[in-house]
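Team,

Forwarding the record for the chain on the shared tracking sheet. I've put the sequence and predicted structure together so nobody has to dig through attachments.
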Amino acid sequence: QVQLVESGGGLVQAGGSLRLSCVGSGRTFSSNAMGWFRQGPGKEREFVATITWNGGSLDYADSVRGRFTISRDNAKNTVYLQMNSLKPEDTAVYYCAVRITGYYWYASDRRDDYDYWGQGTQVTVSS
């Protein structure tokens, strides 16, 4: 059974940093692109960052580019999201996801390209 579990969320002041982790189980994801999305209060789930199977290509939403960094450790079946210079508008539940079907090794910013999702971790940034 494929499972993704996020951790690392919490309450932080504006300007602070957090590092999210997402550990996969049930199979290896070393050949699969992975991504981070977020859903703020009253908003739709939106793209944050994505990474190819080998980390060779990264992409970010304009709202986080230069502040957030996605990375992965295939030996640990884990993807990370380092978040710096956090802003109150970054407050959201953050989800990791993995592509299993289609061009699964390519990074994607499309929610519908991802097949499995974690339960999410809450990030709250106070002003």
